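Many introductory courses stop at the sequence. We go one step further.
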Amino acid sequence: MEINQVKPVQTVGIIVNPRKEEINTYLGELSAWIQKSYYKTKFLLCTYESKYIIDDFAGIDMVSEQELLDRSDLIITLGGDGTILKAVQAIGKLSIPILGINLGGLGFLADTSPENMINNLQSCIQGQYFLESRTVLKCEVKNNGHIFYAFNDIVIDKSGFSRVIEIITHVNDSLLNSYIADGVILSTPTGSTGYSLSAGGPIVSPQTSVFLINPICPHSLSNRPVVVCDSSILTLEVFTEYKEINIYGDGQFVKSYPTGTSFIISKGDYSVNLVKMKGTSFYDTLRNKLHWGDDFRNKRRWSFNDKRK
């Protein structure tokens, strides 16, 4: 869902991946622009590993993560999709908009190039942007009370054991399947271009109100990814011959649980707001990132005729 009403941006928080070699270069570029700019916007920098950052950038104040979250009207991330996922976990239910600057690889979430960083940031300050509201997953461990949220996906994994596990999966009150597999991926539309895509799942428009259920290396060839309405309540009961199974949220280890544990997956009670520039779309990102429509025939390094020579 697009949100056309946007708040004026008075304070911008910056969250970075400090391991990116070029991070100081782009912070320096941002600092130079701030000093020349006539905008009165304040900039706050938060980093998870400050020893990698040169912390004397003019116009950018170093603050704690909590202060950054309390004061920011907008957060920009300098890194890849993983940096956005960390920002999402930090922001939680605060609904602070996120603009992702892609210093990583494919970057479906962080879709602003470094070359467009200043122009897009200026557009944000002027209110020339819109927001996309993205769904999150909520996972509750039955009979335990532990709850966590994921923006991309929740993965139940066999914990390094060589044998497959059994995942009895219900959608609402109906039995869907008893998967015999290495695990299962439960994905939002946003996460459809992540691990689920690598495991053979479909690409789904992020504005689609669905969840994906995608078994990992299922024992039966008839098992395929399933798309269900995001108002569904998914219940998964997991059994293993090993002592435990693992569960992950957005690629991060959450916890190990014993065989027989049940998980209840549903739509989260908040959403994530991603900043998008006017004139761009998810399909532009797909086409550009996946090189759809490119003519590779003229880019081959050799031909069969070359081999015969």
